[in-house]
Amino acid sequence: MRLVLLVAGLTTLGFPTEAPAQGKLGVGLFAPEVDVSAAQRFSYAKALGQHLGAALGQPVEGRAYRSAGDLERDVRAGKIQFAVVGAVYLATKRGVTLLASARIRSKRDQVWSLLSRGKQQLKQLKGKVLQIPSLGPLTPKFVENGILGGEIRPAKYFRVKRSPDLPSAIAALKLGKAAAVVAPVSTPGLQPVVTGLRIPPLAFVAFGKQPAARVKAVKAAILRYGASLGAIHGWKGGNEGEYRALAGASRLRQRSMYMAKIEAARMKMGDILATRNLKQPGMPVLEEIFWVP
Questions:
Q1: Is the pTM for the entire model greater than 0.90?
Q2: CATH value of 108-198 in 3.90.1140.10, 3.40.190.10, 3.40.640.10, 1.10.645.10
Q3: Shortest CA distance to 241 belongs to which of 251, 253, 233, 249?
Q4: Residue in 196, 218, 223 with CA at minimum distance from that of residue 207
Q5: What's the pLDDT band for 264 if we cut at 50, 70, 90?
Q6: What CATH superfamily is the domain 4-107+200-249?
Q7: Can you tell me the distance from the alpha carbon of 289 to that of 293, in angstroms, rounded to the nearest whole number?
Q8: CB-count exposure of residue 61 (10 Å: 0-12, 13-18, 19+)
Q9: 4-107+200-249 against 108-198: fold identical
């Protein structure tokens, strides 16, 4: 299977330029691509808030979000200063600072594809339901150009249905409500239909302009945090370049035409007349092209 390393480029959101220096801070969790329950998301966010609060010496409330819009609303309201987010979501955002990347259990957990029950070809799924988890604003382009290579339009080829997260998308397939799902190739019991596509892991980010001392303390704290969430088991230093290529990789790759300079070749009369000496495989019968006196 050919794996394409996927990574990201960012757009403006308009986050607050300054977070409150004192009082309660907030850390969010928007990770729809992690195959865990809502209760597990809530527990992880709450525990992460407590961990960061102990490091900062002030209250930090952890909140789990079901949609990108809800997270962004609280960021604009100044309720959230830090968050765990997915690579597909991060690919469309500016005004954020990458502090860490998640440690992943297996590289297969980062490879996404179209999956189905049993081995099937793409043509067998035409006109059937494709269940897609809502990973962020880039989701449609991520699927069409990233996973499918821009060769087909999902909305025309499949009956596309959206799910709020990965667990609900997988559940739809297993319940027989869909014929295929966009998910990691490590999903048990499912088979990839098309070429896999590798994306960066979840990211821990800071929103807006914040005191440097606070950001430094939070970064050190998250790198020490080892709690697990699905395939995540701790954090490491992040490589911003990985995420900044994802938006570009999700754009339609167009074939371009280039003008080439062709050098003129001087031929003698004998070269044209002696066509029977040019017996190369696949060459046309030159006697039919040139008049031989």
A1: no
A2: 3.40.190.10
A3: 249
A4: 218
A5: low
A6: Cypl, domain I (3.40.190.180)
A7: 13
A8: middle
A9: yes
- Rounded CA separation 84/204 (Å): 4
Query: What share of the chain in percent tops pLDDT 90?
Result: 57
- Phi and psi of 85, rounded to 5°? -135, 165
Q: Is 234 within 8 Å of 202 (Cβ atoms)? A: no
In angstroms, the CA 99 to CA 118 distance is 40
Quickly list DSSP for 41-83.
Answer: HHHHHHHHHHHHHHHHTS-EEEEE-SSHHHHHHHHHTTS-SEE
Q: Tokens in use for 34?
A: 């992690």
Q: Domain segments of the chain: what residues?
A: 4-107+200-249, 108-198
DSSP bridge partners of 84? 29, 204
